[in-house]
């Protein structure tokens, strides 16, 4: 098997390294808008560097991993699908809902194989939480609380094309709410604050946000996120039922301190970022893609699953902007 990896920045390099370690992934062909960067990574991994992205398709590969800048995702996914190639794409698939729908319709028409990158589905704690909810161990689930907090804002250049806090960051929380509970969101109410660094006000974005989601069985979920959590990288999910409650993401590296006299000690080495926190999950995600390409496993996150999370993020953005609850039926769907 030969896999083409397009994009050799931070996440692309991580994916390429994970594939290079995988015994069934075969050889790698790396490409980037900066050919020199791809060549340096290829030298480190014992892979082949292509002089341009075009060569990934003309030189021949069995599958494609798209990990370049967001504005290139849609075109490369369609290029792969039109060539009959299975493709893994980092979220988001496209920069807006309309383009996402158009791409997914073409993927479906071509009977293409597309896996989207929602790595928390492969996190051990999240998977255990899902099993407990689905088994009934918590009883009737009544409340879900999620938190995603970055230790510091990304660069302004990234923020300008990120799609905003809901689409870029909290979309993972929205995916977890659906995936863990097995229920759909019917209505959202969201608000946000840009009281922090001025770059957020300049871009019309927010640095902190909260969304209240109503699920189709009456469960209520609150999803909070911020770009300004100086204590460290914090991703948690709490699930409360009539019989019990559990939390994923709560360990000795969670960057939160108790004010109780006999509470647990503060984290000695808080998580610094998403690659460190979710490294094993990213590896498992790529391993699932290899199995998918080899015909040995199902698609763990297809286009429809990714679309569902994006639609929630879009509804939250409408809610924040218009200061009102938004029903999910107001947004277009496939």
Characterise this structure.
With about 325 residues, the chain is an alpha/beta fold. It folds into two domains: about 1-120 and about 285-300, NAD(P)-binding Rossmann-like Domain (Rossmann fold); about 120-275 and about 310-330, Dihydrodipicolinate Reductase, domain 2, CATH 3.30.360.10. The protein is built from twelve helices and 13 strands. The protein has helices at about 10-20, 35-45, 55-60, 75-80, 95-110, 125-135, 155-160, 165-180, 200-205, 275, 280-295, 305-320, and strands at about 1-5, 25-30, 50, 65, 85-90, 115, 140-150, 185-195, 210-215, 220-225, 235-240, 245-250, 325. Strands 12-11-7-10-9-8-13 form a seven-stranded mixed beta sheet. A six-stranded parallel beta sheet has the order 3-2-1-4-5-6, with helices on both faces. The longest helix is centred in the last third of the chain and has 20 residues, at about 305-320. The chain is globular, with a radius of gyration of 20 Å. Pfam families: GFO_IDH_MocA, GFO_IDH_MocA_C3. This is Dehydrogenase. It comes from Streptomyces roseus. Keywords: Oxidoreductase.
Strand content: 15-25%
Q: Please name the CATH architecture of the largest domain.
A: 2-Layer Sandwich
- Beta-strand segment tally: 13
Rg of Cα set: 20 Å
Q: What profile does the largest beta sheet have?
A: 7 strands, mixed
Domain count, please report it: 2
Count of DSSP-assigned helices: 12
Assembly state of the chains shown: single chain
- CATH C-level of the largest domain: Alpha Beta
Derived structural class: alpha/beta
Arrangement of strands in the largest sheet: 12-11-7-10-9-8-13
* CATH homologous superfamily designation of the largest domain: Dihydrodipicolinate Reductase, domain 2
The whole-number mean of residue pLDDT values reads 96
């Amino acid at each position: 098997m030969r896999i083409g990896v397009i994009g050799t920045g931070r996440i692309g390099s991580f994916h390429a390294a994970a594939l290079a370690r995988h015994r069934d992934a075969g050889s790698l062909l790396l490409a980037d808008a900066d050919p020199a960067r791809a060549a340096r990574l290829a030298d480190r991994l014992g892979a082949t560097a292509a002089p341009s992205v075009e060569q990934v398709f003309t030189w021949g590969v069995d599958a494609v991993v798209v990990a370049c800048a967001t504005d290139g995702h849609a075109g490369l996914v369609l290029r792969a699908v039109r060539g009959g190639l299975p493709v893994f794409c980092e979220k988001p698939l496209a920069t807006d809902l309309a383009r996402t729908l158009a791409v997914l319709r073409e993927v479906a028409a071509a009977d293409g194989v597309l896996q989207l990158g929602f790595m928390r589905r492969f996190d051990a704690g999240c998977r255990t939480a899902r099993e407990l909810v689905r088994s009934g161990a918590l009883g009737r689930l009544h409340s879900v609380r999620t938190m995603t907090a970055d230790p510091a804002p990304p660069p302004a250049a990234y923020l300008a094309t990120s799609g905003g806090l809901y689409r870029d960051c909290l979309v993972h929380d929205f995916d977890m709410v659906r995936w863990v509970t097995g229920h759909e969101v019917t209505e959202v109410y969201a608000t946000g604050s840009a009281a922090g660094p001025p770059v957020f006000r300049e871009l019309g974005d927010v640095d902190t946000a909260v969304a209240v989601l109503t699920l189709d069985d009456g469960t209520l979920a609150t999803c909070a996120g911020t770009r300004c959590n100086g204590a460290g990288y914090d991703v948690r999910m709490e699930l409360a039922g009539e019989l019990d409650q559990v939390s994923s993401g709560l360990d000795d590296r969670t960057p939160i301190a108790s004010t109780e006299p006999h509470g647990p000690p503060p984290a000695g080495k808080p998580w610094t970022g998403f690659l460190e926190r979710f490294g094993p999950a990213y590896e498992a995600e790529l391993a699932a893609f290899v199995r998918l390409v080899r015909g040995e496993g199902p698609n763990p996150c297809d286009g429809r699953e990714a679309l569902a999370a994006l639609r929630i993020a879009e509804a939250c953005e409408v809610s924040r902007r218009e200061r009102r609850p938004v029903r999910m039926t107001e947004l277009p769907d496939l």
